[in-house]
Amino acid sequence: GTQRLAESVASCTDCPAGKYCSSMGAITWTGECRAGYYCPARSTSDTQQPCSAGHYCMEGDAEMRKCPLGKYRGSTNGESRNDCEECTAGYVCSEEGLSAPNKDCPAGYFCRPGTYRETDSPCTAGYYCPVRSTDRVICEP
Fold first, then answer.
1. 3-28 b/e with 16+ CB inside 10 Å = b?
2. Which of 54, 88, 106, 119 has its CA 20 to 30 A from that of 130?
3. DSSP 8-state assignment for residue 6
């Protein structure tokens, strides 16, 4: 969509990113892009582009936002950072924008929910931690 600001075609401007313009020749934009979607410049709908897995889009967003370290989102149309889930215990989410945990917790370490560095929680003397450990396991005497 475009906005009409003057009498010549050359002076028409694109509908701004984050907004949508539902009709040609509009004086101003129609509204904000809906949460769960993003609207690049020239959008004609409040649901122009669905937000991909691993991301979220708040109302009025012009582009997707990545889920942060230690979190992921397995489905589309996330509406806020709260829609990104904590990384599953026993796994690591070491990158932004993940649709699923990207690493197993390595042997010798344990990974609680939300882990983004695989070496944050080492096993200590008297315990062992196999691959994908969610906690330390005590060694039997």
1. beeeeeeeeeeebbbbbbbeeeeeee
2. 54
3. S
**124 vs 118, 130, 132, 140, CA distance in Å?**
15, 13, 16, 14
DSSP 51: P
The residues, any chain, with a CB within 8 Å of residue 27's CB and separated by 6 or more, are 3, 4, 5
Q: Is 85 within 8 Å of 53 (Cβ atoms)?
A: no
Please provide residue 19's backbone torsions phi and psi, each rounded to the nearest 5 degrees. Answer: -120, 170
Strand partners, 128: 137
pTM assigned to the model: 0.84
Distance CA 49, CA 37 (A): 5
- Tokens of residue 43, six digits: 């959008």
